[in-house]
Amino acid sequence: MIKLSYIFTGALVAASVMVADWATAAPLSLSHNLGRADQMAPMQEQTEQGYQTPAQFRRQVVAYNGSEAPGTVIIDTPNTFLYLVMGNGRALRYGIGVGRDGFRWSGVQHVTKKAEWPDWTPPSEMIARQPYLPRFMAGGPTNPLGARAMYLGNTIYRIHGTNAPSTIGQRVSSGCIRLTNEDIADLYSRVQVGTRVVVLPGAPPATAQNAPQQPVQQR
């Protein structure tokens, strides 16, 4: 059984979007994490300049007393959170965007590839549904995969960034898991190829934004 709950520390969910790194306790900066900060300013201008991620979706440490080993990624699809198990009763939680109706999935995969500022080649299934999509888009600030991507098994799914941060907490993708560019850069630095990724099943809350967040359980 997996149970996840908040550690309430006050400052942990303060208005600042910077969160302390668990190992160094040093603030995480955009330029430090992304390495190519020169690409971020135009991205913000072209998409959602000044957007503030809601407090519940900001990166934060939470309590964890489940059985998954440290280093495991747990994707709580119903509540739009991703957890990185840290050990010692803690996990690092990120807000995510998940698949829309008909595109959500569950199961266990492993990270098989990592890429910085990845190129995007929409799969044939997506082209069939949306024929207006480009057949290829080079990596960069306007690429929908964002600053980093981690590929899951032999599937078409990825954990990746986004240049539309307002979609975090929403169900709008074709099955991929998206984080803000800052968060995907942070997660990318902590996750290695071969990492176990557990995607939990479940229906979304009746009201996605207003429903109370329940502890996650896996039996």
In short:
The protein is α+β, with helices and mostly antiparallel strands and 219 residues long. It has 4 helices and 12 strands; from the N terminus they run βααββββββαββββαβ. It has helices at residues 30-34, 40-46, 124-129, 181-190; strands at 4-6, 60-64, 73-76, 81-87, 90-95, 98-99, 107-116, 148-152, 158-160, 171-173, 177-178, 196-200.
CATH third-level topology:
L,D-transpeptidase catalytic domain-like
Helical proportion, percent range: 10-25%
The helix-and-strand class reads: alpha+beta
Question: What would the average pLDDT be, to the nearest integer?
Answer: 76
Give the radius of gyration: 17 Å
Order of SSEs: EHHEEEEEEHEEEEHE
> How many separate domains make up the residues?
1
Quickly count the helices: 4
Kindly estimate the percentage of residues that lie in beta strands according to DSSP.
Answer: 25-35%
Count of individual beta strands:
12
Largest sheet: 10 strands, mixed
**CATH level 1 name:** Mainly Beta
Shape: globular
Please identify which CATH superfamily we are dealing with.
L,D-transpeptidase catalytic domain-like
N-end to C-end Cα span: 5 Å
Q: What's the architecture, going by CATH?
A: Beta Barrel
